[in-house]
């Protein structure tokens, strides 16, 4: 009888391990397929030039007929998620794309921003460069220097079309626990936070009124080097309350700009 019970217990354990192994393999296979698709998309369209294809023509025509000043939010996912300020005196257009580096953002400026003829460009970019700091082959200093140079080039492009630039400091990382599946990626989060501080120091020194203004988003969101818990969506992003706080200050800045 004991042998029978022992056999059943061993069988259940083996079946459990088999099911767990199958689920793990399926998950890894799915991640591999997803990664393969993303790499294909990057190879075919490295800066996601077609991201706004369906609305570009309509926006461009509307911009040409627009009487109100046009504000374009430009950059990465933090720009893409930026909620529209409650200002009826401006027209707001969003040209943020999640996951993009400063180099990708720079490359799509002419195709996705220039023809909108914006009066103001709000630029939030850089964290996707800096999250690569722990990885070879680029060194930490190369990544930071390239990020700074790309930001400057975007600003130069924006000013060349007569736009006032509001360059925002890079948001801090969130305080929450790093998810288990990302621990291997974010084990050097402190290095990334230091990189954010270094680039933000560079950004703060860029201000040249009246056409280049620095909006210190980091200072508004930060507490002890991290995003305040009430503003955190996840490790990289802020929630609606965070954007509400930013918009309160940004609205004042819009109203101060003389166009």
UniProtKB/TrEMBL annotation:
<dbReference type="GO" id="GO:0004622">
    <property type="term" value="F:phosphatidylcholine lysophospholipase activity"/>
</dbReference>
<keyword id="KW-0812">Transmembrane</keyword>
<dbReference type="InterPro" id="IPR051532">
    <property type="entry name" value="Ester_Hydrolysis_Enzymes"/>
</dbReference>
<feature type="transmembrane region" description="Helical">
    <location>
        <begin position="6"/>
        <end position="29"/>
    </location>
</feature>
<protein>
    <submittedName>
        <fullName>Lipolytic protein G-D-S-L family</fullName>
    </submittedName>
</protein>
<dbReference type="Pfam" id="PF13472">
    <property type="entry name" value="Lipase_GDSL_2"/>
</dbReference>
<feature type="domain" description="SGNH hydrolase-type esterase">
    <location>
        <begin position="90"/>
        <end position="244"/>
    </location>
</feature>
<dbReference type="InterPro" id="IPR013830">
    <property type="entry name" value="SGNH_hydro"/>
</dbReference>
<keyword id="KW-0472">Membrane</keyword>
<keyword id="KW-1133">Transmembrane helix</keyword>
<dbReference type="InterPro" id="IPR036514">
    <property type="entry name" value="SGNH_hydro_sf"/>
</dbReference>
């Amino acid at each position: 009888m004991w042998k029978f019970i022992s056999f059943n217990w061993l069988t259940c354990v083996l079946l459990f391990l088999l099911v767990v192994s199958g689920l793990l393999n399926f998950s890894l296979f799915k991640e591999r397929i997803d990664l393969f698709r993303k790499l294909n998309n990057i190879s075919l369209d490295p800066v996601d030039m077609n991201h706004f294809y369906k609305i570009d023509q309509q926006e461009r025509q509307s911009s040409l007929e627009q009487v109100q000043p046009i504000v374009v939010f430009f950059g990465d996912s933090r720009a893409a998620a930026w909620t529209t300020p409650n200002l009826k005196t401006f027209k707001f257009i969003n040209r943020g794309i999640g996951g993009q580096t400063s180099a990708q953002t720079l490359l799509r400026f002419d195709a996705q921003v220039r023809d909108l003829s914006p009066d103001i460009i709000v630029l939030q970019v850089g964290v996707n460069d800096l999250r690569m700091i722990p990885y070879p082959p680029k060194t930490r200093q190369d990544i930071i220097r390239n990020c700074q140079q790309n930001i400057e080039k975007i600003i130069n492009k924006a000013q060349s079309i007569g736009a006032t630039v509001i360059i925002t400091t890079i948001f801090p990382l969130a305080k929450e626990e790093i998810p288990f599946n990302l621990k291997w990626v974010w084990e050097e989060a402190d290095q990334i936070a230091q990189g954010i501080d270094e680039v933000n120091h560079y950004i703060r020194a860029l201000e040249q009124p009246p056409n280049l203004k620095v909006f210190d988003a980091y200072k508004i969101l930060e507490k002890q080097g991290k995003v305040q818990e009430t503003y955190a969506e996840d490790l990289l992003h802020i929630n609606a309350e965070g954007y509400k706080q930013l918009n309160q200050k940004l609205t004042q800045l819009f109203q101060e700009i003389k166009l």
